[in-house]
Specification:
Shape: extended
Largest sheet: 5 strands, mixed
Strand order of the largest sheet: 5-4-3-6-7
Structural class: alpha/beta
Distance between the termini: 91 Å
Strand content: 5-15%
Helix content: 40-55%
């Protein structure tokens, strides 16, 4: 609350006046801090609403910041080299541009079916204009055009042939029918896979799929398709359990979480559930999702029960209990630390750019290791040789700046985050299999953010759990370069009759398409009661 004084009746005691001045200065400092924080939050809001999402910093700004820092004696290094490495690190995730002039077409996949349309000259034009002799075919010119054939629905009739003994006038038997994804259900494996992929890969909610099918003259309610989604998730649950178990057998896991609105039963209101992602290591390449009704630490503690190894995540305090025993080792994320300095530019641009350039040097080491194809052991040696000294210099600079910036300012919070997480942030130097950041988990969660913009909310906690199973299957397919529709169409048709003891054969990383199915009539006959 602002202190108010009667200027016409100020006290005469000098000590009391000094105290009043000190109180006013304290209030003024607190207001300045609050104004700075609110201005920072407003700038973040404006950037998220209207600005670009990229965290790229222009090279000339980094050069200027380092030049100023060197002039003040804060940094002893080459500003052009530092700024250049940061600019290179920013571009590391961008795809390389073609060396051509930007024109031309990519070759069409050889797997696409070809349809040949031939244009021959009319008979009267097949004569030489000079001598009148008939023209002979000498070659052809081919122009390839990519065409689109709309999706088609077919009605597949499964005919079970009946047999009977004419002499006995009985003993009727009928050929068996293969097990179906949904017993006595309408959808075949292809249609069921199409609905699942459309929603959880192409982010197409069920009510839009309903409208699309209506254009083809097929009336299918979203309620019916919701039942199909439930059945598909149940069929795939054994594979999900295997993938979850194998991820926990790895040496490292990347994890992150994203909010998911969940509808309250019997109301139109929603509350916030959570989808967590757990990305396995190179020997256990699965991307497994888990749903929890809230963000309490119970969710990751239950999922990671019994796990021993590295866990790379953000600084969420719910993980702290996991690290307490020492069986799970915390690994920090430099992308999170970097983002805080990037966001602090609005209030303290010079310090922010210096910090960004330091971090850029760390990423430059990682980029060189990837380009050289270093083994984990060689990458670990490179990090200790080159990244170690950079981290030492950055740590000293951060501790020095922490003494002069306001702790609650955006820069103070960025420095506080980095120093508070310093041991975890430097842990990637210990093992070449570890990553410098947690971007693998963040990339996996992008599909959830895209889907959430379309289907808006989960209908229940059970719906959230189904989404976790189906996102797991889609993400793991994409992780292994497997086309999700082809995989699900095949697996959903095979899993009802597949041996549970050999369920690992159907994992996305080990899956091989089944050979063409034999005719239905070839299955052994079954007697009909009565």
């Amino acid at each position: 609350m602002t202190m108010r004084f009667d200027l016409n009746n100020l006290p005469q005691d000098p000590a009391l006046l000094q105290q009043m001045i000190l109180d006013l200065l304290t209030q003024l400092r607190e207001k300045d801090q609050r104004i700075e924080k609110l201005s920072h939050l407003l700038a973040l809001l404006q950037r998220s609403r209207f600005g670009r999402k990229s965290e790229q910093v222009p090279l000339e700004q980094l050069l200027f910041a380092f030049a100023e820092a060197m002039r003040d004696g804060e940094v002893e290094t080459n500003p052009q080299a530092e700024a250049a490495t940061e600019a290179e690190a920013i571009k590391q995730d961008k795809p390389a541009k073609s060396s051509g002039n930007g024109h031309g077409r990519n070759p069409l996949p050889e797997s696409l079916p070809r349809e040949r349309v031939e244009y021959a000259l009319p008979e009267e034009a097949c004569k030489c204009q000079e001598c009148g002799a008939p023209l002979e075919r000498m070659g052809e010119e081919v122009t390839r055009q990519l065409e689109y054939v709309p999706a088609s629905f077919i009605v597949r009739e499964h005919v079970r042939v009946k047999y009977a003994c004419r002499r006995c006038q009985g003993n009727v038997v009928v050929s068996a029918m293969p097990a179906q994804p949904i017993e006595k259900g309408l959808p075949g494996p292809g249609l069921l896979a199409h609905v699942l992929v459309s929603k959880y890969c192409d982010h197409l909610p069920l009510h839009r799929q309903e409208a699309i099918m209506q254009r083809y003259g097929i009336e299918l309610s979203r309620g019916t398709m919701s039942d199909w989604v439930r059945a598909g998730a149940q069929l795939l649950r054994p594979l999900y359990d295997v993938m979850r178990r194998e991820v926990l057998q790895g040496r490292k896991i990347n994890t992150d979480d994203s909010p998911v609105p969940v509808q309250e039963p019997g109301t139109s209101k929603t509350r916030q559930g959570r989808l967590w992602v757990y990305v396995g290591d190179g020997e256990h390449e699965h991307t497994v999702f888990d749903f929890t009704p809230n963000r309490k630490r119970d969710g990751p503690m239950k999922f990671l029960h019994g796990y021993r190894g590295y866990l790379q995540a953000d600084a969420y305090t719910g993980y702290d209990e996991l690290y307490r025993s020492g069986e799970i080792v915390e690994v920090g994320c430099w992308a999170h630390a970097r983002r805080k300095f990037y966001e602090a530019q609005d209030s303290d641009r010079e310090r922010a750019l210096v910090a960004l350039a330091y971090i850029g040097r760390l990423y430059q080491v990682e980029k060189r290791g990837r380009e050289d194809g270093l083994s984990p052991a060689d990458l670990c040696a490179l990090r200790r040789q080159e990244s170690g000294p950079i981290l030492s210099d950055l740590h000293a600079w951060l501790k020095e700046q922490a003494q002069v910036v306001l702790p609650r300012s955006p820069m103070g919070e960025a420095i506080g985050y980095a120093l508070g997480q310093w041991r975890a942030l430097g842990r990637y130097l210990e093992d070449g299999d570890l990553e410098i950041d947690n971007n693998a988990a963040e990339r996996a969660l992008r599909r959830v953010a895209l889907g959430r913009k379309n289907w808006l909310f989960a209908g229940s906690d059970e719906g959230g759990r189904r989404a976790a199973i189906l996102y797991t299957m889609i993400a793991s397919c994409q992780q292994h370069g497997v086309e999700p529709f082809a995989y699900l169409r095949d697996v959903l048709g095979r899993i009802p009759s597949h041996l549970q003891s050999r369920i690992e054969e159907l994992l996305p990383g080990r899956w091989e398409p089944a050979p063409p199915r034999a005719p239905v009539a070839a299955h052994p006959a079954q007697p009909i009661d009565g």
